């Protein structure tokens, strides 16, 4: 857990970088710090591992005032990932990854085994990449090594400064997603600095939107997009914040429509009669285990007649998302397959379909829910300030 209590930093030349910051990052939470260049994000982050000392205020990590912790020991408990990655050019990828475990006195074999495990975890086969040098990697691969290295000593806290900044947008999105699924297992307490609002929204459990040297709003991405606390925040998150909400609103059971169903082994004429009766133009087709197979049109079933079965006429449906996926993913599947709906699965089971109308309703629901929850961030600040 990381806690800032009225922390300010004035640099020797008189520049006030941050002023009276109070916030808390819960254990296992990922908080993004976002704001324009020069607003104090990096200063905030570097005070946590004491690369920069605050002018006033306190910072606690796991309840301990870090001013009284030896900086070298402190840094071993805190993983640090930066944009330029900072790999040692003359050391192999494996040795780079094993740097911190080796520093804290692990035996060489154990440190290297751990490094190999971590490389695997970030999607780099240690047999292929372990013996390479940083210059022999792509930008995205270097970034992965940076993340692996930061995680190698299993620090409870991770600081990430524009960790995906140096790669193109496609690789960037993939690295973000990979990091999120990694984070779902390792559950580190993470502070992530970015100037990219999309990244802040996508990655953060909560996000801190910086104005000049102070936090304008500290809340969940959905709340920041749904109810910006100040005109500044509204302007910063952008006029298309409704669209950005698609990334943070998830597909829920209640959003789904239940279309007519047909079974793969059903005779075509029986299925056709049933669907005509229900005035349905198509049905979702499931296999005997209730798993999605695809869809079938009522007209085609009617024309086929006996002895055809649904299986003969059904088409595969590739557009599906799991329950709990962001609406954006559902929308993008709809567009990619040019489909008027997307199937939603609960595990392997078919749960229903999402249509454009239901997607719009889901978006409305989340906007309304947040409009009622305005100000949650401020309440939290007050309680920190009073402590
Ligand atoms: N060593 C320093 N001496 C004086 N001023 C500094 C120093 N380091 C940073 N600053 C100033 O402090 C302010 C905050 O800088 P900081 O690097 O924290 O911003 P940032 O939000 O991380 O910006 P960026 O996104 O451009 O990295 C800026 O005005 C910067 O010029």
UniProtKB/TrEMBL annotation:
One Pfam family in the UniProt entry: ABC_tran
InterPro entries for the chain: AAA+_ATPase, ABC_transporter-like_ATP-bd, ABC_transporter-like_CS, CBS_dom_sf, Gly-betaine_transp_ATP-bd, P-loop_NTPase
Record keywords: ATP-binding, Nucleotide-binding, Repeat, Transport
Domain of life: Bacteria
GO MF annotation terms: ATP binding
Record bears the keyword Nucleotide-binding: yes
Residue span(s) of domain ABC transporter: 2-237
Similarity comment: Belongs to the ABC transporter superfamily.
Protein name: ABC transporter ATP-binding protein
Species the sequence originates in: Streptomyces noboritoensis
